[in-house]
Amino acid sequence: MAVSCQAACCGGQSPGLIYWCFRALCCKGxxxxxxxxxxxxxxLTGSGKTSLLSKLCSESPDNxxxxxxxxxxxxxFQNAILNVKELGGADNIRxxxxxxxxxxxxxxxxxxxxxxEDDLETARNELHSALQHPQxxxxxxxILANHQDKPAARSVQEVxxxxxITLCISCFLHFCCHSGILxxxxx
Length: 187
Description:
Blueprint: H1 2-10, H2 15-27, E1 36-42, H3 49-56, E2 70-76, E3 81-87, H4 91-94, E4 106-112, H5 117-132, E5 141-146, H6 156-167, E6 177-180
Parallel strand pairs: 1-3, 1-4, 4-5, 5-6
Antiparallel strand pairs: 2-3
Helix pairs in contact: 1-2
C-alpha cells in the first residue's frame, strides 16, 4: 500500500512529498504544533509594554493605545509561540497583577530607562515584589530598559547597578537586562 501511495500521490518524487503523502493519507492529522509558552509582561504605565508587543507582532505603531486592565497577544516565532499577558501598569491596576501570574513560564519587566527618580523607585519596588512572588520567583526574567533613545535614558549598566544593589537578588537568579528602542528611524 505504501508503494502505491507513493506512486499515485507523488509519482516517485522527492522524499518531502512522500512524507506529505504519508501524513495526508495515513495520519489524517495536522502537522505537529509549535510549542507555546505563557509569559507575563509587566511594568509601569508608559514604560512601553504595548509598543514592545505590537512591534513583536508586526502591528502598526500608529494605533497603539495604552493597556487598561490586561491584554493577551500571541507572538509567533519560527520555532515557538509566546502567549504574552500584558498587564496594565497604572497604580489602581498593579495591585491585581498577582491574580494573572498563575501558569506563567517567564516574565518580561519593561522599565522606562528615562523615567523620573520617583518612577524608577516605584518600578524597582514592583520588580522586587514580582521577583519575590511565589509563582514567579523561579521563572526567567527579562528586564528591558526601554526608551534608550530619550536624552535622559539611563544606560543598561546604570539600570543593572540600581537593581542589583537594591534588590538582593538570590544567587540562583540570572539577571538579564537589555536596552530597547522600539521605533524605526522614520518614527
